Amino acid sequence: MRLIVLGLNHKTAPVEIREKFSLPKEKVREGLTHLGEYDGISEAVVLSTCNRSEIYAVTSDIKLGEESLKAFWSDLTGSDEDISEYAYVFADEACIRHLFNVASSLDSLIIGEGQILSQVKDAYSTAHTVGTTSTVLNTLFHRAIATGKRVRTETRIAYSAVSVSYAAVELARDIFGTLEGTSALIFGAGKMAELTGENLIGRGVGKIFVANRHIDKAEAMAKKFGGEAVDFDSAIERADSVDIIVTSTGAPHYVIHPWETSLAMKKRKGRPLVFIDIAVPRDVDPDVANIKGVTVYNIDDLEEVVDEHKAERAAEAHEAEKIVDEEVESIIDKFQYLSFQPLMARLSGRADKIRRRELRRAMGKLPDLSDDEMKVIENMSRMIVRKLLRFPMMEINASAGTEREKFYIDAMNKLFKLDFIEEDAESEAEANYRYAQQ
User: Fold this and answer.
1) pLDDT value at position 45?
2) What is the pLDDT of residues 246-273, one digit of tens each?
3) Which single residue of 115, 140, 320, 414 could bond 151 by disulfide (Cβ 3.0 to 4.6 Å)?
4) Which strands sit side by side in the sheet containing 52-59, from one edge to the other?
């Protein structure tokens, strides 16, 4: 059993690369149903957000697993682009630590932001529903989520955090000096768009227009801000009367194009217009930035705003890292024996089934035994099995995580025919589930 993660994020790849690998949940779900077609991968979870795309997996061999994950990623995204310049691969302890840092928001663009923990939960839930997680990733992701919660509970890292939407509004305020009396058009009606609207109102924006493919959602969000819902397809026409346009849709293509923006700018008669695009994939065509009077910022441009708040979160991040260290050490101890636990459960189950069968036969030939005498024989049979298995079990445990591990797994399966005994009391799936819960 080896753990591996293949991915890229805001630290390694600019937004124009990240957007090519951003995946909607439906596509992830569909792709995971084909996981069995890739050699060496037994479990997998795909995490895709605006700032990262990652695949966590259990593999029999790191090199084989890396190649299979690259093939899986290429098929999943439909891109054959060479990502070696932007991608990272972490194995075993480094993989565990990376996931725990991600779930704790220590690897986020905005350290301490709360959305990533929900995104980790959703990614795991999707994979678990499809059936591409088992003992190892069930254990790993349950612990990662628990670590993220512990960090948010035991530190104040979230108290000094800013959100992407807050950073976007701060960027707009830096540009205009003040947002008092300005107006804004928001494309999108999701959580990020709503938070942006709240922050805009909080900074003094006087009027907000909301555009969404589903007009009822636009109307509901606009009502919260005392704003106005507008038709999505003609929303850009409002550009002649607003100062800021924020885009936060889930569209897989650009929703703001150069030609329509040029027409809008002619009506503005030289007044500047600012686009803040916090969507991945991007909503605003990069060529829009070439239009005179137009300034376009994307999610990567928020990093400068975020940097101003880093010092405030440094001390809390240090405390969070201590928690991550503790949790990583704890789960490594658990994983040391995890690969053997299903095998040991099958061996114990097989031995106990033989014991009970032979005990029933013996009792049938001794009908005059008292209840106390039957209990003595029952207990003796249990002790014989336990003592016979004791030293093999100790030897198996001692080889966990060493080069002898595979030898013992193969040997035990072959010697006791554990791979072929279908009538065993406990299936591997049941054993996996039981140990994942412990």
Assistant:
1) 97
2) 999 988 899 999 999 998 898 888 788 9
3) 320
4) 41-48, 52-59, 2-9, 88-91
DSSP-assigned letter for residue 335: H
Tens-place pLDDT, residues 39-65? 989 999 999 998 899 999 999 889 999
Q: Answer yes or no: are the C-beta atoms of 135 and 432 closer than 8 Å.
A: yes
What is the sign of the dihedral through the CA atoms of 94, 100, 106 and 110? positive
In order, the DSSP letters of 122-166 are HHHHHHHHHT---HHHHHHHHHHHHHHHHHHHHS-TTTT---HHH
50 is catalytic: yes
Query: Which amino acid is present at 262?
Result: S
Beta-carbon neighbour count of residue 105 at 10 Å? 26
- CA distance linking residue 138 with residue 41, whole number of Å: 15
Q: How confident is the model at residue 162, as a pLDDT? A: 64
CA dist 23 and 373 (Å) reads 66
From the candidates 50, 55, 116, 302, which is the catalytic residue? 50
Tell me the DSSP string of 80-133. Answer: ----TTT-EEEETHHHHHHHHHHHTTTTSSSTT-SHHHHHHHHHHHHHHHHT--
pLDDT at 428 over 50: no
Kindly report the backbone phi and psi dihedral angles of residue 49, in degrees, each rounded to the nearest multiple of 5, phi listed first: -130, -175
What is the C-alpha to C-alpha distance for residues 280 and 19, in angstroms, rounded to an integer? Answer: 5
Which of 347 and 49 is assigned the larger pLDDT? 49
β-pairing, 88-91 with 183-187? unpaired
pLDDT of amino acid 160? 56
Phi, psi of 186 (to 5 degrees): -110, 125
